[in-house]
Amino acid sequence: MTTLLTFPKGGIHPPESKELTAAKKIEVMPVPAELEIILSQHIGAPCKPTVEKKAEVGEGAVIGDVVKGLGVPLHSPAAGKIKAISSSVHPLKLNAPSITITVNPEAAPLHYEKKEWRDIDPKELLGKLKDAGVIGIGGAGFPTHVKLSPPSNSPVDTLVVNAAECEPYITADHRQMVEHSAEIIEGCKVILRILGISNCLIGVESNKPNAFQALSETAANTAESDFKIEVRALQVKYPQGSEKQLIQAVTGRKVPGYALPSAVGVVVQNVSTAKAIYDAVVLEKPLYEKVITVSGKGIQRPANLLVKMGTRISDIVDYLGGIKPELKKIVLGGPMMGFAVSSLDIPITKTTSSVLFLSEDEIDTAPHSQCIRCGWCLEACPMGLEPKEIGLFVEANHAEETERFGVFECFECGSCAYVCPAKRPLVQFVRLAKMKAKRK
Amino acid sequence: MIEQQGNLPSAQQGLWKVSISPHIKSDESVEKIMWTVVGCLVPPLILSVFVFGIQVLFITAVSVASCMAVEAVSQKALGRKVTVRDGSAALTGMLIAFVIPPGVSAFLPVLAAIFAIYIGKHILGGLGYNFFNPALLGRAFLLASFPVAMTSAWLPPIEPGAIFSYLGVSIDAVSTATPLAVMKEQGMAAFNERFGEGASLYTSFFLGWRPGSIGETSGFLMLLGGLFLLYKRYITWHIPVSLLGSIAVLTWIFGGEGYFAGDPLLAVLSGGALLGAFFMATDYVTSPSNKISQIVFGVGIGALTVLIRLKGGYPEGICYAILLMNPLSTVLDGWFKQKRFALPQGGEK
Ligand code: SF4
Ligand code: SF4
């Protein structure tokens, strides 16, 4: 690793806290007795159930599909019987409809064989992704077949793979890069073929030297003239893995405000999505299980787990030896952008990257006070916005005027709120402002 | 923290904290910053006890205690949360003591505290909403109300070991003029006669053995405190460097007999310039937040300081210079905004 790449402005260095799980191999968690699959897993329309109550389903069988609009089908993560089609607690939307499956413990797990994909037409490959239910599992959960069909008026020439994993605690991508580098590189080649391009840049933060090495070696050993895959080392800085920041770090291109990466000829995919794409195309295995990190000082045994979609947090807690008394907060996703939940009944979805059990000394509980105008938030903001002003305007009931401070460019990375010495809830202010302000 | 109200239909509800991201925060706090700055002012304070006697400790204690008391009472009276523990009032008290003559009556810092904290800060909305540096406001108020005491109660340095020498002595009998006042009123020759020439002059100013306010005593300790704040990243170089740099350059050009004959080093070491540059012009609330506006702000203060020192009646011009620039902070921030990551295509929409 020579010079480390990074984005030009802002960013923070929170404690990485990855040592809890960074060296732990991915464990396959036993399938729990019951799985609860939320019907709304991604951006776009929620799925409609395609099965009836009491029906028997096999592993990988379609149990839900979109009727119209953006979306992908849902698959049963295990063989079993449909117990209920009902509403349940959803991490984002409360009382989202879901399908509950009673798992058949006798059923043998499916095995998938590798298939040849290089002769398949890109259109058909996209279809395979859709059929396998692949969405961007690193973040927002945008259906991948749509993301890989960029508008024809902005030609794409580079695939950027996000392997930064800049959120503290999370090591799921890291472990996959170490243990599944071959599948990831192959997955990147599938994406390149779909896009009809040959350039791929993978950005890895330099705190994962073994992942960097594994990917670089695999890329070199499987080099093909059609695919130019390079691994780039990134500085350890949050939010290195944010789309616009990552693109600038590895390609030097700046995505204009409100625009998509395709405006500068780039498509970004998360490294774990690349693995899911491999599964969907090369193994023809639908997306119904994923690697997550379970960490924090509030859980007995932090781990990287391969879990079935629909596994409830309570099952994970049982499997990992229970929670510790110092547990104060449960967070789905990273500590910077994840959301706190107050129930163990919530099931894992396709976009859950981690479950954190945080203790008192890991979280922030200080009450917030008045802004002292220190300007630290301005310096931390990777988008060059003015979080301080947004907060002051929201407090003064002028949220509708915050458009000029760039509130819609804010992707809620939380860097500003992290550094604020007055502990102001700046992300909360931004969300309120976004609700009130109109984008001109 | 505003709590996210979730009506989760679970028996577990309320057991764990639920709030909006981020869930981790840095361990810096307003309290930590303010008390650290106060701490940086302790070494010069201790030194001045040896220079001017125990009297300065007494004046400082009165000033800090009355600022904290006025803060608590004002907040109670205005129905706000009492936040004296955050150290901002203590810092104001410390700074007031640092910019008034050590020989004044203890009654003066009490009045300054009331003016600075109640009028200058809480009437305007409290910490974060005041647009003048409270300590300097307090000093300006004293100077307007007690011009004689405020310009004559300077104490000459004491003999080593005689730290109780001014107790019980009429201050009138011992008070003296500050170096810049001597230079201004009696000329360079008188100045050199009293405070020395060349290297020994710089040394005495750098180490602090000369009359003046507490904040003027030791350039060395002030600089050390300022460097510590820089190291802690509580302040950045932008304001102190642009401020001191412009004082030095402008004094060099205009401060002597004929052009380019001034003494830049002396200008920086005297008149509380270092205290002002590191501890007062950098006050978060009353200085700009953006880097470019900070530089403009610093240069503005430096230029005004030199102007007041050379043309006006106040040798310690930096105090007024800072007060004059304070209300411009928000204006400057509006003019020199930091660059966005990227603006929408086709300019700002
Ligand atoms: S949350 Fe928004 S305003 Fe705050 S640092 Fe991130 S992008 Fe900037
Ligand atoms: S970091 Fe917090 S206190 Fe400082 S300017 Fe921003 S909002 Fe205000």
Which SSEs are present, and which pair or pack?
The complex is a heterodimer of chains A (440) and B (349).
Chain A (H helix, E strand, L loop, with lengths): L25 E3 L5 E5 L9 E2 L6 E2 L4 E4 L8 E2 L4 E9 L7 E8 L18 H10 L12 H4 L10 E6 L8 H8 L1 H15 L3 E7 L3 H13 L6 E7 L8 H9 L14 E5 H12 L6 E7 L7 E6 L4 H7 L7 E6 L6 E3 L12 E6 L16 H5 L6 H9 L19 H5 L6 H11 L4
Parallel strand pairs in A: 1-14, 9-10, 9-12, 10-11, 13-17
Antiparallel strand pairs in A: 2-8, 3-5, 4-7, 5-6, 7-8, 13-14, 15-16, 15-17
Chain B lengths: L29 H11 L1 H11 L2 H23 L10 H12 L7 H16 L11 H12 L1 H6 L18 H4 L4 H17 L2 H10 L11 H13 L6 H17 L9 H6 L3 H8 L10 H21 L6 H8 L3 H7 L14
Can you walk me through this structure?
The complex is a heterodimer of chains A (440) and B (349). Helices cover 25% and strands 20% of the residues of chain A. By secondary structure, chain A is α/β, with parallel strands linked by helices. Chain A has a 6-stranded mixed beta sheet. Chain A has a 4-stranded antiparallel beta sheet with strand order 2-8-7-4, with no helix packed on it. The longest helix of chain A is centred in the middle third of the chain and has 15 residues, at 181-195. Chain A is globular. The mean pLDDT of chain A is 91. Chain B has 349 residues and is mainly alpha-helical. Chain B is globular, with a radius of gyration of 22 Å. The model of chain B is unreliable at 1-14 (pLDDT under 50). Chains A and B meet through β15, β16, α11 and α12 of A and α1 of B. The structure holds iron/sulfur cluster (2 copies). Residues 380-381, 383, 385, 387, 410-416, 426-427, 430 of chain A line the site of one iron/sulfur cluster.
Taking the alpha carbons of the first and last residues of chain A, their distance comes to 44 Å
Which small-molecule ligands are present, each listed once? iron/sulfur cluster
Fraction of helical residues of chain A? 10-25%
Mean pLDDT of chain A: 91
Report Rg of chain A: 21 Å
Tell me which protein chains meet in the greatest interface and how many residues each side has: A-B, 72 and 51 residues
Poorly predicted runs of chain B: 1-14
Strands across the major sheet of chain A, in which order?
1-14-13-17-15-16
Instruction: State the secondary-structure class of chain A.
Output: alpha/beta
What's the rounded overall pLDDT mean of chain B?
83
The largest β sheet of chain B comes out as: none
Strand content of chain A: 15-25%
Q: State the separation between the terminal residues of chain B, measured CA to CA.
A: 33 Å
**Structural class per helix/strand content of chain B?**
mainly alpha
Compute the number of helices of chain A.
12
Strand content of chain B: under 5%
Q: What form of chain B results from the Cα inertia axes?
A: globular
SSE series of chain B: HHHHHHHHHHHHHHHHH
